[in-house]
Design goal:
Pfam families: Ni_hydr_CYTB. Its cofactor is heme b. There is one protein chain. Helix content is 68%, strand content 2%. By secondary structure, it is mostly helical. The structure holds protoporphyrin IX containing FE (HEM) (2 copies). The site of one protoporphyrin IX containing FE has 20 residues, from helix 1, helix 3, helix 4 and helix 5.
């Protein structure tokens, strides 16, 4: 039977990844502006970005698997067209969350620079190939721009629900509150 809200694990992954992805985008935009001055600062921050990017790659795999395995979550009440639009937007968010780390990873593999996972060098997987590096870098950049746009729309949709429709959409993506133990229905009734 479809569930009326998201389970704890989905809520945990949603908010953890929202924070990590926003941080990762900010880091990506900032680090590309660092000078190539031979100090090693740029390379160090690039490796921080690559390491967290690979962590995100694992998290999205777990999230996707969980989204397919968990019981279906019923759409919030509303017009059919809006429900279909929201489902489409969520699918696109998932697709971008997959494309981003993989394009970043392959761009880095073909750049010829070593990839360090939190300091630990990964084995060299390919030699430098400028054409492939350029292609994956472009995909990475465009996917990041699309994700920023879609997350902005996602937050706008959330604000629409919160401020205009005034429904309980956020409750569906909130950590479920524990029911108070000795809750007496009469007390609830009169309070
Ligand atoms: C990088 C940032 C974000 C991404 C990638 C993202 C992605 C998603 C996805 C894919 C879903 C569908 C549920 C799932 O399968 O997990 C979802 C649901 C939801 N998100 Fe986000 N989200 C982000 C940030 C935010 C923010 C900042 C807010 C609010 C301010 C928000 C509010 C919600 C709500 C309320 C739902 C539940 C919608 C429903 O009931 O169907 N999200 N999000
Ligand atoms: C969800 C995960 C990721 C997000 C949201 C993300 C986001 C970004 C953003 C916004 C930029 C700046 C784009 C620009 O203006 O050039 C960037 C650049 C970059 N990212 Fe990521 N990234 C992710 C994962 C990764 C991974 C896993 C790697 C490599 C293992 C990586 C490697 C790079 C590199 C090397 C750049 C510099 C520009 C280039 O050469 O393409 N990223 N990333």
């Amino acid at each position: 039977m479809p569930q009326p809200r998201y389970d704890r694990f989905s809520v945990f992954l949603h908010w953890l990844m929202a924070v990590l992805i926003v941080g990762q985008i900010a880091l990506g935009l900032w680090m590309t502006g660092l000078p190539k001055d031979g100090s090693g600062l740029r390379a160090a921050w690039f490796n921080v970005h690559k390491s967290w990017g690979m962590v995100l790659c694992l998290l999205i795999a777990v999230r996707l698997a969980w989204a397919l395995l968990r019981p279906r979550v019923a759409p919030p009440p509303g017009a059919r067209a809006l429900q279909a639009l929201a489902a489409g937007a969520h699918r696109l968010l998932y697709a971008l969350m997959l494309v981003l780390p993989w394009s970043g990873f392959f761009g880095s593999v073909f750049s010829g620079y070593p990839i360090r996972f939190f300091g630990m060098p990964l084995p060299k997987m390919a030699s430098r190939w400028d054409g492939a590096k350029e292609l994956f870098s472009n995909v990475h950049q465009w996917a990041a721009a699309a994700l920023v746009l879609l997350v902005a729309l996602h937050v706008l949709a959330f604000l629409y629900h919160q401020c205009i429709v005034k429904d309980t959409l956020l409750q569906r993506m909130r950590w479920p509150r524990r029911r108070a133990r000795n809750t007496c229905s009469t007390v609830q009734h009169f309070s």
